[in-house]
Design a protein that fits this description.
The chain has 311 residues and is of the alpha/beta class. The chain has helices at 33-37, 50-54, 60-67, 69-87, 101-105, 126-131, 133-148, 164-176, 193-197, 199-202, 214-222, 240-255, 270-279, 291-310, and strands spanning 22-27, 44-48, 92-95, 154-158, 186-190, 209-212, 259-262, 283-286. The protein has 14 helices and 8 strands. The chain has an 8-stranded parallel beta barrel with strand order 1-2-3-4-5-6-7-8, surrounded by 4 helices. Bound molecules: phosphoenolpyruvate and magnesium ion. Catalyzes the phosphorylation of pyruvate to phosphoenolpyruvate.
């Protein structure tokens, strides 16, 4: 007769293999936090705030104008808090706003958005944040409030950074919002070839981590629109050019004690997991449904590396 564990002895989270590589999970909506936490992931590698913002039905500028900055800060605090609470003390890496202008167009206030031929190459992520610091500063104020509330597991991640100037300016704005970059865990996404090529200067800005956004890194490295079905077969996250940028970035980061991670879709692919673990990545963030497979694949590769090293 098969053994059926009772409620008491059944582990709350699935038994997972112990890996040196941390395996985390991506969360796009706070409502998914419970399911994400139940995977046994070591934390959240990417918490997108786009959904929290776009669901307001107004552009952030319009929302702040109508409802006040405080209301915008509250929305971000509530969204991040739901996930940080569920995962505490496991780290939750929340990313500041990164939505292209075309996604704001349908919202109230969207008529004031610029018309861009290439929104993906346009005014998004850290670019918009630095140009329109009012919205960015309100997001930083949300992080500040979360730290004050005791959520020291919240980490801050900046999207679409190109170079040290972007990171330095962001750090300056953090200080203006009473956040000491040296006292928190913060980092940048590596999702443009520029950021991978300029990693030597980026590691000097005080970042604690660099996280590969392979959706964009692939798009920009191969000049293949990630949303264009005509070139979908050319969208290859494992292309040698992409892997070369990732590999060299990991090496530089390791030399400077900066953690590395992946939070793009490719982190859920076994081939990418193999490559990253062999390169010595610190953590891998996968989709909820892929966490378990990634844990096991990471374990397999780690064991193989260990066997190879003693041979
Ligand atoms: C990425 O580019 O890989 C990423 C994780 O960011 P997003 O998909 O939100 O652009
Ligand atoms: Mg991206």
């Amino acid at each position: 007769e098969e053994f059926e564990p009772t409620e008491e002895v059944r582990p709350k989270t699935p038994v997972k293999p112990m890996t040196a590589t941390e395996v985390k999970v991506n969360v796009s909506i706070p409502e998914a936090a419970e399911r994400a936490a139940a995977t046994g992931a070591d934390g959240v590698g990417l918490l997108r705030i786009e959904h929290m913002v776009l669901s307001l039905g107004q552009t952030p500028e319009r929302y702040i104008q109508r409802n006040g900055r405080r209301a915008y800060v509250d929305e971000i605090v509530d969204g991040i808090r739901e996930v940080a609470e569920e995962f505490y003390p496991r780290p939750v890496r929340a990313r500041t706003l990164d939505a292209p202008t075309d996604e704001f167009k349908e919202l109230e206030g969207g008529d004031e958005e610029p018309n861009e031929h290439n929104p993906m190459l346009g005014w998004r992520g850290i670019r918009r944040s630095l140009d329109k610091p009012d919205v960015f500063r309100a997001e930083l104020a949300a992080f500040r409030r979360l730290y004050d509330m005791g959520y020291d597991n919240v980490e801050l991640m900046l999207p679409l950074v190109n170079d040290a100037a972007d990171a330095d300016r962001a750090a300056e704005l953090m200080r203006e919002e009473d956040i000491d970059p040296n006292a928190i865990t913060w980092g940048v996404m590596i999702e443009t070839p520029a950021s991978a090529l300029r990693i030597e200067e980026l590691v000097e800005t005080g970042i604690d981590f660099a996280s590969f956004g392979t959706n964009d890194l692939t798009q920009y490295t191969l000049a293949v629109d990630r949303n264009n079905e005509n070139v979908a077969d050319r969208f290859d996250e494992l292309h040698p050019a992409v892997l070369q940028l990732i590999g060299s970035t990991i090496q530089t980061c390791r030399e400077h004690d900066v953690a590395t991670s992946i939070c793009g879709q490719a982190g859920s692919k076994p081939e990418m997991v193999r490559f990253l673990v062999e390169e010595g990545v610190s953590s891998i963030s996968a989709n909820i449904d892929a966490v378990r497979d990634v844990q096991h694949e990471a374990k397999r590769v780690e064991q193989q590396l260990l066997l190879d090293s003693v041979r």
